[in-house]
């Protein structure tokens, strides 16, 4: 069992009671009494705190952290040692002692004497690096085990990049039990969730977003609801979104909701991958070298869609032909043999969303005039999809050189924005692929109401707000509309099929997106 542990970091007894009771109600499986947070801590105060926690009948870790290892209130060494030995006498399940202190004879002698008297308590020897990974993680682990083979080893370091997390997973793989390795920072978030998959003795989650005792800690409700902690086991298959930034992404919420609905032992995580192609290639190589991690697929967002294409091309991996032409990949699947395949579900999602609005027919597109506004990444994918289905495309863009280049590539016409609504303006389909109309500029629209007629289909890729000014105008004149949410859900549905071979639940995805927005 990997105990989901909530640190209790109150500065007084009353607050401690509130925090601990709340942690119990939220489903904590163990509490960590961070006694160093208690202001004015002495032995009596500690006993009162500990006795209260005992009444909640959860296992307890007692920690009285040295300031050099992140402790609060700069407590005297003699008091810290007294608290730990008292905790052992009182029957704490675990006491956490810093490795740097335990290495010293006077510390280890007293702790071991107390442990001998009470055979119940387990000793945790911990070490922290708040700046970076350790130079040699294996050596750190072996040094701790060599001075105390019965201890649970807890190693916490800062991941400055997602690629710093791999050696943490390697250490779990090389050692069977009595180990906790966690990475601080947002990039290290996955180590906190995956500790259970790799058999860690415990992992931590904060009481809420304001109560973190370490950087990158996530709240217990996020751990249990979004990441479905209770269901994680060694066989859980992993997916994720690779992006930077990644915190705003709706993808973990929608894919995890669909995995849950389908009862699949699959988990979708945010992968903060900072840097450029060098870091991306390193990530992919390290991941594919470790099939035992269980990663089976990824969504890819900015800034790595082109990096993904280049990586897969250079490594001779499978690529969807239209994705190759579009020049970007937003979906990767990883096979049992660690081969990667790349797809673009943006164009497919957009085409599906339009088809749904016109009655589900793929034949609708052939011979239709489409006005695509914008010439960026999303426009490129949509233009490729429209051309593939037989539309005549005109691209309107602020920077004319950019849209002329795109038009040449895809056999389309190019025009400046000023040409919208001019004499030859007669589209069956309008697609906004610019950010115009996106929150907070919700009053803006690339096409004014007088240039929209009831026989047109109007599609806005912007999804925040769900109904943009452009879509509001289109509805007002009786035109059919397609929203950015329709496209987002359709591309995610397509990804879900790539990930699982099964259809996702569009209604759950849509509801999750609306809740998120
Ligand atoms: P991008 O590559 O940066 O391209 C942005 C495009 O918008 C360019 O053509 C740019 O014109 C134009 N533009 C930006 N500001 C403008 C303004 N004030 N007036 C006129 N044109 C302007 O961005 P992208 O990745 O293609 O994304 C475009 C939009 O797609 C995003 O804003 C987002 O809302 C939407 N999106 C939707 C989904 C979905 O699933 N629904 C997914 C991804 C993105 P210039 O060439 O002149 O700079």
**What composes the largest sheet?**
8 strands, parallel
CATH superfamily descriptor of the largest domain:
Aldolase class I
Strand content: 15-25%
Describe the strand arrangement of the main beta sheet, using strand numbers.
Answer: 7-6-5-4-3-2-1-8
Radius of gyration, Cα only, in angstroms? 28 Å
State the end-to-end CA separation: 36 Å
Number of strands: 20
Outline, from the CA principal axes? elongated
The CATH first-level class of the largest domain comes to Alpha Beta
CATH architecture annotation name of the largest domain: Alpha-Beta Barrel
Number of H- or I-type helical stretches: 19
Count of folded domains: 3
CATH topology of the largest domain: TIM Barrel
Helix content: 25-40%
Q: Taking all residues together, what is the mean pLDDT?
A: 96
List ligands, each type once.
NADP nicotinamide-adenine-dinucleotide phosphate
Helix/strand structural class = alpha/beta
Oligomer: single chain
Unreliably modeled segments = none
Blueprint (SSEs and pairs):
Layout: E1 3-8, H1 13-25, E2 30-34, H2 43-55, E3 60-63, H3 77-90, E4 94-98, H4 99-102, H5 105-117, E5 122-129, H6 137-147, E6 152-158, H7 166-174, E7 179-184, H8 189-194, E8 202-204, H9 220-226, E9 237-243, H10 251-261, E10 266-272, H11 277-288, E11 295-300, H12 305-314, E12 318-319, H13 321-326, E13 331-334, E14 340-343, H14 345-357, E15 369-373, H15 377-388, E16 392-397, H16 400-410, E17 413-416, E18 429-432, E19 457-460, H17 469-477, E20 480-482, H18 484-500, H19 506-516
Parallel strand pairs: 1-2, 1-8, 2-3, 3-4, 4-5, 5-6, 6-7, 9-10, 9-11, 12-14, 15-16, 15-18, 16-17, 18-19, 19-20
Antiparallel strand pairs: 11-13, 13-14
Residues 374-379, 397-399, 402, 433-436, 438, 461-463, 484, 487-488, 491 line the site of NADP nicotinamide-adenine-dinucleotide phosphate.
